[in-house]
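Shipment paperwork, digital attachment
Item: protein structure file
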Amino acid sequence: MTGTADRPLRVALVGYGLAGSVFHAPLIAATEGLVLDTVVTSSEERRGQARGAFPSVRFAASPGELWERADALDLVVVASPNKTHVPIATAALESGLAVVVDKPVAGTAAEARGLAGLAEERGLLLSVFQNRRWDNDFLTLRGLLDAGELGEVLRFESRFERWRPRLKGGWRESGAPEEFGGLLYDLGSHVVDQALTLFGPVTSVYAEADVRRAGAEADDDTFFALTHANGVRSHLHVSAITAQLGPRLRVLGSAGGYVKYGLDPQEADLRDGRRPGTAGEPWGVEPESLWGRLGAGESPLTGGGTPVPTLPGDYPAYYAAIAAALRDGTAPPVTARQAAAALDVLEAARRSAREGVTVELDLRRP
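Attachment content:
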């Protein structure tokens, strides 16, 4: 880290597709102490989009141009296709630069642990962008759990379901093994990370992964059943073909349950061009009609239970924590070893779905 208290930390963003343009660039620009210095893209169209949103940004055609001036940068954010995450992150760390990598950090847990080891050896920050830890429903649920409102949690149900019956194309839907496409590694990265964050290590994994849409190559309808070491069972659904959406969260405990419908509004707001930190505009706030309900023996669909005000979502908190970690040496908000633990689960899920077996995990992994 080369920044000072009176100079923002300079960030290079590799990739300006969906992840780079919708999530990373706006959140970096909205974070006090960070400045979006360079965007790496060879696309003239994407350069035009980035220049329109961030007039002072510089451009590079390839990540290699960053390593040539590494001393002029403080952080590299990797938001390029999945298969490029490991080589670009490795090169950045070897150039002495701190790194944030979009999820999944790697295709395998072994690769993720290799990156973690390299960062530790070099004394550099390496973090993984898991923005869904700052979703409004997740933050609200954490508050309920901390307050003991549910008693002993028995089952955690989490859904990221969409109705997208037509293919969009691109690497995210590719069936090529090196692309790590499909929902298992995409939305699955989010739901697994949330389950591990809330309930700790997993001892066994069962999964079903289907390819439902005509012409599809990668899984688009996947289910995970996880058994945590503490006895909680997580049932996780990710789907692009759900014609009627289920609850986003349904969490059942010995003293009560919490049911929440509807997605956090932050992604939709970012896609629509809204930016956090705009004067006079609240961020991450949803209407009362979407609040979840807490109760026992009642149906939330018929008004049962008590409405629970949803805490505002807070994606900006991720990069605020990154800036603090770079300046003050505090722990990053998400570590590469945490991401490796999630990849252990994703790899086990892929094997389970392929072989039709339940996969046991070794909790002695570092």
